[in-house]
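Request: How about a record?
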Amino acid sequence: MLRENDASAAGRRAPRPGRRAFVAAAGMLAAMPAAVLADAPLEIRISKGYGILYLPLLVMEKQRLFEKHAASLGAGNCRVSWVLLDGGGSINDAMMAGTLDFAGTGAPGFIDLWARARGIPNVEVVGVSGLSATSLWLNANRPRIRSLRDFTAKDKIAVPGIKTSLSAVVLQMMAAKILGSRHFAALDALTANYPHPAAMRALIERQDGVSAHLASPPFSYLELLHKDVHRVLSSVDVLGNIILDVIFAPRRFTQSHPLMVDVFLAALDEANRFIAAHRHAAAALYAADAAVSVSAREVLSMLDDPDTRFSLMPNQIMDYVNFLYGTGTIRIKPERWTELFVPQLVARASQ
């Protein structure tokens, strides 16, 4: 049963901002009074999303780990604000508007924004760390759908953001593998914008013509508890266990406040270690805060899935870069992952 209904955005397709929008945003940010910009880091604004993939951020929030490491590293007292955002488009819009300092998002959405904002002062972004990986399941409520080839123009596939969200790009990558690289966008016309909780309800209750949902845990698991829903395929089976979500930030912020980056990495690392050492407690914490009704025991089974892992390192993120560049989604291609991320993370990788 849903505790939170965010279906108002269902089916809407937001236009993708062009380079002019980024230049305009840069001008607006540059015009802000110096006092406003100077005071902004006192309130650290962090976004998280739905699902198990964001569990480390939930642990950070509930255990006040950012505040803890800010104090230990001499960063002073920080007031942290947490925002719940779902879908790469809404997260990128908030980042471009200057209302976030750190954001958890799907790797493709970050890469897309990194490429489009590259070289534009004030709106450039940079990766801070990896976050999580698991298997996305394509679940369907029509018995005839057993593979990607079985979808027709009458079907609707729910994803939390058209074309650039994590689910949308993973669907394209799977289509390229299964249907052939020229057909990577074959299913794009069937996708519709639904936050994961709303997508799960639409799939289970057969609302709005939704016949499939490319879902992450816990939604992917909970959907299969219903006899009319079955799994069509798993992203891990097609693409391997690549990184799914990352953390990114405004480049200007990371350069002006490198200590805040150190604080964030230390806090996220402690959150990951807590999940690994206290899985029952982590499962209970998520179950108590989830947007859907799920038990701690069910969450624990999801955490025990070998495909689910949490790490600061953005493993295989270049798989997305190569795909997005090859399809023309991005026009600037970094040669290695280190170009995408802050030097603090690169230094950790060499340790």
In short: The radius of gyration is 19 Å.
